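ok so heres the complex, three chains, lmk if somethin looks off
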Amino acid sequence: MSALHICLDHRAADGFRLAVDFSLPGTGVTALYGPSGSGKTTLLDCVAGLRTVRGGNIALGEQHWQDARRTLPAWQRGIGYVFQDARLFPHLSVRDNLLYGVARQPTGAPVQFDEAVAWLELGDLLQRQPDTLSAGQRQRVAIGRALLAAQRLVLLDEPLANLDYEATRQCLRGLKNIAGQHRLPMLYVSHDIEEVSELADHIALLEGGNLVGQGSLIDMCSRIDSRLAHEEQAAAIVSGTVARHDHAYGLSELGVAGQTLWVNQLHEDIGSARRVRIPARDVSLCRAKPEGTSILNVFRVTIAEIEDSGDARLLLRLALGDQFLLARITRKSATELRFAVGDEVFAQVKSAALLMEAL
Amino acid sequence: MPLRHALLCLLLLATPCDAAQALRVAVAANFRATLESINAVYERETGQRVVLSSASTGVLATQILHGAPFDLFLSADSDAPARLAGARAGLREVPPACYAVGRLALAGGELAALADPDNSVALANPDTAPYGRAAMAVLARPEFAAGAARKLVRGNNTVQAYQFFAGGAVDLALVPLAIAPEGAALVPAHWHARLEQHALLLHDSAAARGYLNWLRSARVRSLITDAGYEPCP
Amino acid sequence: MPLSPAELDAIALTLALAAVTTALLLLLGTPLAWWLSRQRGSLGAFIEALVALPLILPPTVLGFYLLLLLAPDTPVGRLWQQVTGTQLAFSFSALVIGSVLYSLPFVVQPLQAAFTRVPAGLLQAAATLGANPADQFRSIVLPLCRRSFLVAASLGFAHTVGEFGVVLMIGGNIPGETQVLSIALYDHVETLRFAEAHRLAAGLVIFSVALLFALYRGAGTTPWRLRA
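and the predicted structre for the whole thing:
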């Protein structure tokens, strides 16, 4: 599939300047990540054609969506757009909302109606009117509507921002189902790294209207020089293979770089791949292999980088085979234990969150 | 689509009926009722249909000035026809002619009641209606000076002035004899300027001339007199 | 006592005038109301004020200026004469023109208010789903504003049925051609024939109350609600 090229230089009335020039992969889920006010939604609206910024250049593969000569209107771009507020049409049933874009597609759709209904668990809602739905249900319908309308690209603008925990889980489940099918590339705007970790393959970091980095999610998460590593919820993502199920204890064993990671019991077949998110603050380090600890997951790792910014805490990047973990420990511990790059140490992992199936 | 059919039907219904031979007469509102009874006789005798359009003299004069398709104009005064004849060259050939002289009457009491300041009096607007001007002349007479503090209520026209009285809103009304109730006191003609009502031929035709002549025939004069007007001199 | 032929003529004429006027008002008022609902500048406010003018101007004054505009010796009147071969002033067409202008705010204002309430976000959503602007209007705005169209049409119709001053001035009160119900009623009052006047007035009142009642009762039965 074709890459998305975006080149914009726009100064808003309030002085905010959005200046980016980059290409995003034309497959999988790309997260547009950044704090609020970083220009994410403006960027997404420009890609959608809902907003036109003078002098911008946007192209999906060979098709120019905006250049010096013309701007392709939103309704000709073959996109689907999921808004923060679902924006369902109040006079149409759920079914008719879902079919709105389908009826307006010039050619056959990559996603069939029944598939979208199944992935998003909409079967029981089809006859309902939008005003009888909960916020989470509405957002799932909105996701389905955009997905069914999309020919080339799905855009999502913080679709989970206004949902409670349970609704968020349900929507995420649907989105993971969709992402797992790899039918359409998705551009996903978010300021929540956990959400992004669940879904994205690729991540583009926006800050103050500028692109400050992009790369694969796994790389970006464990790079100590990336802004992600310095957030409170900084976490590394590792991928493993399901090795064994332990029904007696309700756990499953993942093989990660020849070592073992226990997680809550999975239903996948032996040999299938999973991603796991390991927060930096939940990793502690020992010089010697810990004995008699209640913590199940202990890895032998090599210290690859240490970042000392003079704070009370340090950030360490730990090599685990060809993958990496992050650990945040106090400077006092690091000094007393004399950690140095190249040392082999043991990393205790207090928690590990399972993510979607790895790619 | 049924709505469209309905619309079409309505349009067909509303297309002007063949009014080519009908004589179109614009008549001042105060004379309309009288003219209708006169026309009933005329239509019966000649078979000539006469279609009446009425409004206040001022409105009718404005419309005629801007091309209203009337054959004849029966004004409530003599000024409007004279002004029209002066304004439009085509209207000068047949000069305006008197067809009735109006008389003023007091509804609600004897003439002496006008001397009582407690009695409110309705009259037509003297700025626009000749009957209103006549009523003002009556009220200004020395014998009614005692009632000068009376409350005056002005109607847009004579009919409205009468309606104020009929509705009980005022004690007295100075209105045309033609619309005054029975028992109203006739005001002496010499107390005010003569209320001559003039007719003007707008669209010359045999039918229009015939009608105008008939209007001034002895037969019609008696009908007009019965209705509360005096014949023209 | 049955209605006289002249009264029947007046009723038929009134219904035809109101129907034609309402149809034209919807045709002209819809794009105008849409344009106004998307305007924020002073031009929009100015046009809005012009549209509202008939609410303020006395009908006879409006009628007088229309007469000055449409008379046979004016450019408009001459053009009409050349194109159609008939005189414009004191014709049914003149009544339609006057009624359209006079009832314009009654159609434009409810539509404009309804269009303003349609969230722009819904139209954006429709655009991203492949709907061009005309399609957005047809598939989103029209169904969401269905009731307001009904209100606008009914008000336009009722107001045209009840209008008097404008049609008296530019119509000339010609039976069978321009004498509508309200003028026939006025004639009855002017000639002090109150029984006939009462009968026509009662008919007019019953018709208007029935229409407006149906309208307002329908207000509670909207099949959907707009969410904030």
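quick notes: The mean pLDDT of chain A is 88. thats all i got rn
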